[in-house]
């Protein structure tokens, strides 16, 4: 980028016009208020800019918003074809419903086991009564040992059967609970996988560009759309590396946008980026608009002046009176003389003279 210094006198109420020349192209230095600025070029971008990307491979089969549309946070914007994943999700959903039925209040599996346990307890109760009666009879020698032992064996068998059936009921219930939790986890995983085929917005904003059309194949990690803040923009500027040291955070920036013709927007420097862009030998600087902001059109080209110093009263001459980089022709006692001067701030139109001339000096162009 060619180094430029612009003077912003129109903004502070002072005309840009060079010192008035005589018909012989003569002039004299004048004290003026001089503002030094660094030239920058760049573009306008929305804040909170991000790209919507795909988390899975698939064909784009549905689109709910288009370029220029305002969108809400977490709004579904695109949907990719997901036949295989939909089938897996449906299978997981069916398994989950079956698991919930198996472990629910009306579980057919648990009802059957509970019924078997109830019958075993009834038999145990009968066998217990029969055992007690036979024991009493045996103690009074009213029955044989064989009948007594048969009743005792039936009672112990029923007792063991009740214990076994209760353990089977608890074991089955615990297993059905584990199956239900696994089914829930499997369903959540498949549902989450299904979300990879649905592309949603991260934040509310405006869609500035869409990179894919319906029916096109989208690869995992591929950008599908560009989204940014619909109400706020900032200026992204490129500063020549020779001027970068002069730029500080908080400095005033005067911005000209081609779309707005002669209108000048005011901003301030908010961020300096320390990395040099080797392609064009520039540094990036961001500026935030003050008061009025331009419309949120993405990438509008701008030119800007960053005010780096303001000199309320300095001796200046028109730049076209310079000979080389530090000399001028003056008239002294009727003779023409070439002398050297010490320059200060300079720009495309004016040069500050620190020494070598006074207000009474008479300058002219050429020999």
UniProtKB/TrEMBL annotation:
Name this protein carries in UniProt: YknX-like beta-barrel domain-containing protein
InterPro entries: Beta-barrel_YknX, UPF0194_transport
Domain YknX-like beta-barrel residues, every copy: 237-276
Main location group: other
Cellular localization per UniProt: Cell envelope
Pfam families linked to this entry: Beta-barrel_YknX
Keywords: Coiled coil
